[in-house]
Amino acid sequence: xxxxxxxxxxxxxxxVIIVALxxxxxxxxxxxxxSPVQVVPPVVEEETKPRLPATKESWENMTISERxxxxxxxxEWPSEAPEEVVEPIQRIVSEVDEIAEGRRTWIxxxxxxxxxxxxxASDGSKSVYYNSTTGQFFSTDxxxxxxxxxxxxxxxxxxxxxxxxxDKAIIEYPDGFKVMYDFNTxxxxxxxxxxxxxxxxxAGSQIVFKSLSKYPENNWLAIAQADGRQPKPIEHLGNNxxxxxxxxxxxxxxxxxxxxxxxxxxxxxxxxxxxxxxxNFKSLIVDGRGFEPKWSPQGDKIVYSVYGSDSGYKPQLYLxxxxxxQTGRNKKVLGLATWAHKCAFNKSGDTVYCAVPGELPEGxxxxxxxxxxxxxxxxxxxxxxxxxxxxxxxxxGGYDVEDIYLSDDESYxxxxxxxxxxxRYIKLK
Length: 429
Fold this sequence. Notes:
Layout: H1 3-29, H2 56-60, H3 64-69, E1 103-105, E2 107-109, E3 115-120, E4 127-131, E5 136-140, E6 146-148, E7 159-162, E8 168-172, E9 178-182, E10 187-191, E11 195-200, E12 206-211, E13 220-225, E14 232-236, E15 244-246, E16 256-258, E17 269-274, E18 284-286, E19 289-295, E20 301-307, E21 316-321, E22 332-333, E23 343-345, E24 351-357, E25 376-382, E26 388-394, E27 401-406, E28 412-417, E29 422-427
Parallel strand pairs: 1-26
Antiparallel strand pairs: 2-29, 3-4, 4-5, 5-6, 7-8, 8-9, 9-10, 11-12, 12-13, 13-14, 15-16, 16-17, 17-18, 19-20, 20-21, 21-22, 23-24, 24-25, 25-26, 27-28, 28-29
């Protein structure tokens, strides 16, 4: 390469460097930075409609400026203003009654505790019972507000027989040990093991019972003081102790029933009424076996159950008079297949409330276990006329009823559900 060519290339290279330096200085000191383009989403304004008052009269009472401020038509009420549609509230009408009126009815638990021996307290409103879990006695109202009756604990009680005033009770244990407990004095009295089937006199000061032995000649119906003192034999039982039902009447006349009357055929029985003083009471003629009575509060009537071949060996319910010359009269066949222990008189004795199994199988009178677990419905019976009205069926499937009783004002029908041992009630008022 000659010298002339070298000079030309040097000039060109120098020129390129000069131009590059000029561009660098320009971008550094004179060129403004370009901001990145921001993409802003379009704002879509919601279409707002004027909210009209509820009525045209409200709009007319507004001034023009008030209408404008609220975005309402200023001068003219729209002729076809869209009405705001308010959906009506759908109310579900309950098909279950709170108060028993002959339909499906709520049955309410008093407490969640398993109870035994529940019965009406002396005030005619509350209940008293034994708590099988804690071994203690309580009183409670229908809301489950309970009070302890005594600090003493009784474990594994099998049976309880309350005095009429509920201030005393005979307590029996599975091994046959028996005591009478006084809740007022907090005192316990031991009773003989061979005394069985207790019933209290109306005053709660005496008891009637069967004094039994392995020798028939020593079997007696007897009475004694509540604490077991001064026992007195009343009637010799011999081999007939299983034919006697111990039950002291509220009028203090009868202490037991005995199915040892004159034979009257296979399914008809003469029931003798036993008093304290060898009285010669008129007898009852009943149409069946398995006699089970329950007294009215006045002691002038009983509701009783018996079974026979005509009823398919199911227990049938009857009403009959049991006082003085009227004893055995005014018998009413009620046509309800249930037991007397599932019934309760009201305080005045003019009404009976009964729990009746819905589908009692044939032979249940002979073998009561056939009825275990069956759902009971509830009926109300007019004692004077024998008229029966359906009271309630349980809304939740039903219960097997035992230990049934009423509050004195007939507001609540209480019972123990046999399957769960829970105390429950039906509201009647």
